[in-house]
Amino acid sequence: MAQPETITLTTAQAIIRYLDAQHIEIDGAEMRVCGGGFGIFGHGNVTCLGEALYEHRETLPLYRGQNEQGMGFAAAAYSKAWLRRRFMLCTASAGPGTANLLTAAALAHANRLPMLMLCGDAFLTRLPDPVLQQLEHFGNPTLGVNDAFKAVSRYWDRITHPAQILNTLPAALNTMLDPADCGPAFIGLPQDVQGWTYDYPVSFFDKRVHRIRRQAPDMEEVVDAITLLKNAKRPMIIAGGGVQYSGAVAELTTFAEASNIPVVETIAGRANMAHDHPLNCGPIGVTGSDSANAIAEKADVILAIGTRLQDFTTGSWTAFAHDAQIIGINVGRHDAAKHMSMTVVGDAAIALASLDTDYQSPEEWTAFATAERAKWIDYVAENTRLGNGPASYAQAIGEVNRLCDPRDRVVAAAGGLPAEVTANWKTLDIGTVDVEFGFSCMGYEIAGGWGARIAQAEREPDRDTIVFTGDGSYLLMNSDIYSSVLTDKKMIVLVLDNGGFAVINKLQNNTGNESFNNLIADTPTATQQVRVDFEAHARAMGANAETVETPAGLADAFARAQASDRTYVICMKVDPYEGWTAQGHAWWEVGTPHITTSDKVRDAHVDWESTRHRQRKGV
Fold first, then answer.
1. 40, 142, 211, 391: which has the highest count of C-beta atoms within 10 A?
2. Tens digit of pLDDT for each residue in 260-317?
3. Whole-angstrom distance between the N-terminal and C-terminal Cα of the chain?
């Protein structure tokens, strides 16, 4: 028997050559499944992996990061913009460079997003030990920083021989492209092993075209779901992010319209339906709408589609009636089965198409939902109206919403803005909102905006990426403004400055506590009250920037930002105490002191616990 043709390559060369050969079919077109990568080189990855990446720089472009955590955020936003069909690699050196990726890996894990991490590792031979930046564990020399990624990766491996990648790379890729197991993959690359050679089969590097698997649900589960639904008096659909990832927006809309069932959206599911669709009854939960939460309180059958039902969606499981029955439609069995749901495990598009029934929601229920929707629309219109109280997040959001193009992409993350964007943004087109609240990472906004813009430039280069960030997140991570200027990936960034961590100060006050260490003004160790000149700072990184004094000034500033040839930062102060969206908040479980010397804290604890009886018991 003839031996297969082989080619001698280093481990690093083989990894990058394999990635370069992997393609995916999207809407009938073929493209590389790896869009390139983000990298910061150090001694642990520059000599071998860097050499390999250089040879493929035309087909796998490597974006130079400023901070490894930001690189990971950008990679996550990139894959989200591509609906998990494509991913970016991140490479970091051994030691602190790799450790900086931990938070980003956790974000990708929580949000079920693909990201490939190729990171330096300690020398396998241990001959030079201990090396620079190596952590020594006296009783376990195999243990290092890279082991920390086991908790935040869907796939983890350390390459100890060049031949291993013949199994590792396909396994990692299959994990990242699997609808149910999707998440970050981590591959540790010892510095010596990166440069070791092996005679690889040439066929390993043949072009391969991948397709995302569509798992059909079990028909007995579908029949059970139809039976339950046909007996529903007050049905409701919760549409999560999985609806978009499965490409099931059309199926969702068709099913909802045919059955006349009101639809509410999770934070990840924002932009499943346009704002003006009559069945779109608003966002649900802690950062939701009065309309969605009122419907949820009364619903007897809940179709939870493509959602992991986290506490901001369920109001820590107080948003639903105790006897409400949940049908979990999800490609992941873990998410489908939450709280004793009736499971329909499978692809959302196929599952929705399988729910073929002549069921019609009762007219009185639909009328109730329509009335609640109308009240919420009126509230948002007033809440975002210029001049409605002091300068607020809501006013800024409403003004940008009025001025942007329907296909512009909106990015927000931690602090008060996720709630305010979720509640007040009127979706103008499908799939245009990225509110990262799965891991709620400060600093995601600008880095994620950069990654989203890279993806957007590949698909809709004439549209804008609009980033909403607070001053706290800006100060935590802002250097990818510079990255966006360097790479000609323009963003429009709104920095809404409320003088600190205002939303946590709000929570602090709402639980009876005094303002302490959140707002700059209430930080005892801040001996000087110095406000940051965000405009000057952004200009120093090469962006165009300006400051507006009131929301009324946003219109002209936003027009200048739209016309700008580079990233444009608009800064505006907002009130830290007033102007918050007051409606739509479901109960949320937070730990409050059971004993205290403060009457206010004790009263707040009693009040907070007074509605705990509404919390559903389940698993």
1. 391
2. 999 999 999 999 999 999 999 999 999 999 999 999 999 999 999 999 999 999 999 9
3. 56
Domain residue ranges in the chain? 6-210, 219-377, 388-573, 589-619
Paired with 39 in beta bridges are: 64, 91
**Global pTM exceeds 0.90:** yes
Structure tokens given for 458: 């590949």
**C-beta separation of 448 from 436 below 8 A:** yes
Longest CA span, the chain: 85
User: Is the torsion defined by CA of 135, 137, 140, 141 positive or negative?
Assistant: positive
Supply 572's token pair: 């505006």
Q: In Å, how far from its chain's centre is CA 317? A: 22
Question: What is the chain's alpha carbon radius of gyration, rounded to the nearest angstrom?
Answer: 25
| CATH superfamily, region 219-377 | TPP-binding domain (3.40.50.1220)
- Are both 6-210 and 388-573 of the same fold? yes
Pick one of 3.40.50.970, 3.40.50.2300, 3.30.70.270, 2.30.110.10 as the CATH number of 6-210. 3.40.50.970
388-573 has CATH 3.40.50.970 classification: yes
Q: Are 477 and 469 in contact (CB under 8 A)?
A: no
What is the 8-class DSSP label of residue 202?
A: G
**Taking 90 as the threshold, does the pLDDT of residue 470 lie above it?**
yes
The answer to whether the bond into 130 is cis (omega within 30° of 0) is yes
